[in-house]
Design a protein that fits this description.
7 helices; 176 residues; 4-stranded mixed beta sheet; 2 domains; DNA Binding (I), subunit A; 23% strand; alpha+beta
Length: 176
Amino acid sequence: MSAQVLVLNRNFEPLSVCGWQRAVSMVYVGKAIVVESDSRVLHSPSTEMQMPTVVKLSYQVSRPLPKLKLSRQNLLARDRHTCQYCGRRSKNLTVDHVIPRERGGTSSWQNLVVCCSDCNNKKGNRTPREAGLRLIRRPRRPKFIPYLSFATFTAAVKNPIWRYYLEPFAPHLVGS
């Protein structure tokens, strides 16, 4: 059994994703309550409980908002593992500077996109216009989701049970 559980703060803000064992431990000692569960039942010698899928802490955790880091993983999550020139989905994508560094392009959210190796080779050291390519989406810094990493959040949104709890924090990602 390798189930993941969404952990919410007392105010229902998403905090993290943990394994089912950790979630059950938090519920058992009174640190969390089960908000959603699935049909699987966990058995112990003295009790039974349904497998939690979402738990809410019984106390409020105050943490400073983390800063969203510019990383390959976060770029892949922002661009949904899709080449930003041809639209092909792949796990083997490269990071491309829209305006090449040699022409003053920076390594920033607004100038980096992921693309397939075919499009990257076609573009080379030119601008997309010079290479006859068009960007599918204009690159932007994503609106950060508190506490969950951007990549974790974009993966968590795919879980239909968790969507309800995540949507208020990024409706633009959930609706896509």
